[in-house]
Amino acid sequence: MNKQQIKFNEEIEQYTKTWTPAKVAAFRSAFLTWYDEEKRLLPWRVNQEPYSVWVSEIMLQQTQVATVIPYYQRFMEWFPTVQDLAEAPEDKLLKAWEGLGYYSRVRNMQVAAKQVVSEFGGQFPTTSEGLKQLKGIGPYTAGAIASISFKEPAPAVDGNVMRVFSRLFGIGEDIAKPSTLKYFDAVVRHVIDPIRPGDMNQATMDLGSSICTPTKPKCEACPLQSFCLTYQQGTQENYPVKLKKIKVTHKYYLALAKENNQGQFEMIQRPSEGLLANLWTFPLIEVSKEDYERYHQEWQGTAEGVLASETDSLLKTLQREYPEAVWQKQPVGEITHVFSHLKWHVLIAYGRKNQSLIAEETDKHVWITPETFKELAVPKPQEKMNQLLKKANYIN
DNA sequence: AACACGGGGGC
DNA sequence: GCCCCAGTGTT
């Protein structure tokens, strides 16, 4: 067992350590009693055939219960068995799904139906592992069918289940990350009823849709109140944790490290509002991603067949746009910096001027020696650039 | 790991 | 009218 596995096991134990066998038994009893009393009588709950469970689960992945019911009933009339589905003409198949969306799912269902007929003799595989071999059946659907139809104590973890269990156990992992699934899988395995695993999975789904709702959970009506860690802490509304995935925007710059004959570098103060307001950096020239990548390739010496007449080299650009300095042919280097919502890619170009031109100075524009950089407020990317210049012996 | 799939519901 | 939703497949 490697370190990561040990760490994982310890984390799971933190969640389950107060769940003694007696508590687990009481939990199962309370939950299943509630389910027996409250369970909704849905058309796909009249039997536990894998075919009916499968059809309903696929439909329910994309649509709410009330909408699914008529679709489900018509689907079962048109395709009563897996053989009927396997042999169905495509237009009838699509007609049956019309309005549900995600049409590839019904096509995958037919592929799976054909697999069942030809590879499994018309019978569904009876384990979650076997079920996962069927097209369109992933861990969730496999767990649902295996537990309901074959009484395998397999978790069926969907968004509802993550919500319920994150609150019950105070699981603060980010449910937006696919890797978080394993925490819920482990915790569900710890408490799932070995005699009625399917009912426990369905009870969890029902609880998630009727009581343990995303906002304003009806904890006063919850059969699991006394088992719920976050209810006791009053923190249930903070769960599940779902980090908004912020899209990172990439920005590409050339930084101009211009040194004059006094050993001074040009520094520019950023605008008083927005990102890094009022901080000082080398002059930054935003370039397109394409130009940046080309400059970067030239620098790394991997550009092939690039004709000077078609594209502009970094050196030519610098000489044309900033003729007051003598530019070094190659960039000093590259730094990147990740902000909360964007990533800077900066190539540092070094150029030397033969005059001092102090007259150019304004209050937002100074020439200073590296020794006095620290008198200016400088952001992290500029610090990285300074480090790079030091390392390459441009400054001390 | 990121994106596509396609409707419905919530704001 | 825009954003998010929830699994599975694909790249």
UniProtKB/TrEMBL annotation:
SMART domains referenced in this protein's UniProt entry, alphabetically: ENDO3c, FES
EC number(s) per entry: 3.2.2.31
Cofactor detail note: Binds 1 [4Fe-4S] cluster.
Enzyme category, top tier: hydrolase
Alphabetical GO biological process terms: base-excision repair; mismatch repair
Molecular function via GO: 4 iron, 4 sulfur cluster binding; 8-oxo-7,8-dihydroguanine DNA N-glycosylase activity; adenine/guanine mispair binding; metal ion binding; oxidized purine DNA binding; purine-specific mismatch base pair DNA N-glycosylase activity
Cofactor section: [4Fe-4S] cluster
Gene3D superfamilies from the UniProt entry: Helix-hairpin-Helix base-excision DNA repair enzymes (C-terminal), Hypothetical protein, domain 2, Nucleoside Triphosphate Pyrophosphohydrolase
Keywords recorded for this protein, A-Z: 4Fe-4S, DNA damage, DNA repair, Glycosidase, Hydrolase, Iron, Iron-sulfur, Metal-binding
Matches recorded under Pfam families: EndIII_4Fe-2S (PF10576), HHH (PF00633), HhH-GPD (PF00730), NUDIX_4 (PF14815)
Reaction equations catalysed: Hydrolyzes free adenine bases from 7,8-dihydro-8-oxoguanine:adenine mismatched double-stranded DNA, leaving an apurinic site
Biological role stated in the UniProt entry: Adenine glycosylase active on G-A mispairs. MutY also corrects error-prone DNA synthesis past GO lesions which are due to the oxidatively damaged form of guanine: 7,8-dihydro-8-oxoguanine (8-oxo-dGTP).
Family from the record: Belongs to the Nth/MutY family.
Protein name: Adenine DNA glycosylase
